[in-house]
Design a protein that fits this description.
alpha/beta, Rossmann fold, six-stranded mixed beta sheet, 9 helices
Amino acid sequence: MAFLVLLRHGQSQWNLENRFTGWIDVPLTEQGKADAKKTGKALKDLRFDHAFTSGLVRAQDTLSIILEELDQTNIPIEKDKALNERHYGDLQGLNKAEMAAKYGQEQVKLWRRSYTTRPPNGESHEDCEKRTLPYFLEKILPLLASGKNVLVAAHGNSLRPIIKYLDHMDPEAAAEMEIGLCTPYIYTFEGKKVVKKEMREVLGIVTKASSTTEKRVEKGRV
């Protein structure tokens, strides 16, 4: 038996500002740091053998805070761009509500939630899956099959293909799925087979990547 914890990073500054982030290295907010610490407390019953994260600081810092809270900073950690957020191309840094006003909500929804549609000069969900899922299958799944417990701190769109694979989801359903900030998805494995799944509640955290200005931009959010 082994377990896998998949975790999206805490709130970043551009989550707060409702901007497309992608591969831009944006730091956590103070809320994001506090939420990562709360998540660490919620995982106190788990002991990890290995951890993975992306090449982006918001995921790396989330992982560091959690491991510090768990007093497990000495475990092996692998950082790889294969686990980076989906590249949003020309949309990176732009406000989602403003883009919805400019291009229409349906177009922005396609860029965000279609499995195959690419934002201008960016990646589709399908493109992201082509780098993320092979990395999981090659680097992470063998550890689980050997009985090692693994923590992955990454991004909504890089975790999505892994959850899609483990939960046997169809592509469009996976693309539409919401993955909460700092919300642990815990999978128990026997060999390479998932035998149990848990989404662990962490009280008091911000789970949506919505900003403090959400009410003001509600009509533009898609």
